[in-house]
């Protein structure tokens, strides 16, 4: 059994930098900690690592590399630690994973199989015709796509052109790139929050979520956490507001992407899901599949070349687009998924606004989430702190052992009740607004 008796040697730990009171400068906070030389330490960073600077943790990543790492961090709440809300992770983790998966599926289908197969009766090489129609796009007859009487059509949107409106189908070359671009946009709020969060939650955890910590280590780390929270009480508002801003950006992103996809599909996407639901309820004989209107399987292509006499010749071809069978499934799912995300994210933003302006709601939520903490402790904590402190407490409670978190809040509430706030962080008064 390792010797865990602490030595008399002390070391100074620089574990965070925060603004001076009434100043924009920074101050360094040092605390002594007893050294336990024979106790194995976790490889993860903590306040016990000399020179740890949470604001600089993971901020040197490049943006593309961080996007790819975000796919792995989709399971972060299972194997790691939590720095955001479940709805925020749906936007920035789950949706990114879905979009990248869809992009890879379309890419594989496009470059492994045949993305287009054109039929022509004359003497034109098949690969030449396929390549030409793929590059220069195909088209359907817009009027024919809406007709319920299909007796004069070989397929929806396939009939004689004449003076009818022609709808160009150009998007199929760009679907995989567009999906990946959407993934980047969805990951951007998380990347921004990770840069602003600066590793604060991970640093304050100090491996207190690990069950192998000895009692001596737990006491030392709890003391460091309490000292930090005491010295920096009421200095976390901007930190919390930055996270709330990222949630607002997530809401604006999902709404903006609905309009972006509508533009990508020439104004046919915004009502896509509603039209599909209406199509299911229509009579089978009269209904027109809206998925085939946006993602036609059969299109037309016009190939022009000079004949042997030097006169121009026009050749019409029918082109099969097997990729659209995959595309329609992807985008009907994304339509409903984005609607769900928009609703959940909007409700989350409303929830944040209530938290900012209602201290009593903060008391209620903290009590409901962490029932081991006594009511008087929660009341004291919220009364003597600000909204940003509440957000930090809430995040810490999700990442450390519940008993340790209870002890930390009880000790902090005891210090707050015992000290005159004219000589400490904050001031006396009723429950504080944000």
UniProtKB/TrEMBL annotation:
Any Pfam family hit: Innexin
Compartments, as annotated in UniProt: Cell junction, Gap junction; Cell membrane
Cross-referenced PROSITE patterns: PANNEXIN (PS51013)
Membrane topology recorded in Swiss-Prot or TrEMBL: Multi-pass membrane protein
Keyword flag Transmembrane: yes
UniProt keyword annotation of Cell inner membrane present: no
GO BP term (any one): monoatomic ion transmembrane transport
GO cellular component: gap junction; plasma membrane
GO molecular function, one term: gap junction channel activity
Transmembrane intervals: 171-188, 243-261, 330-357
Keywords: Cell junction, Cell membrane, Gap junction, Ion channel, Ion transport, Membrane, Transmembrane, Transmembrane helix, Transport
Protein's job: Structural component of the gap junctions.
PANTHER family tied to this protein: INNEXIN, INNEXIN SHAKING-B
Assigned protein family: Belongs to the pannexin family.
Protein known as: Innexin
Gene that produces this protein: inx
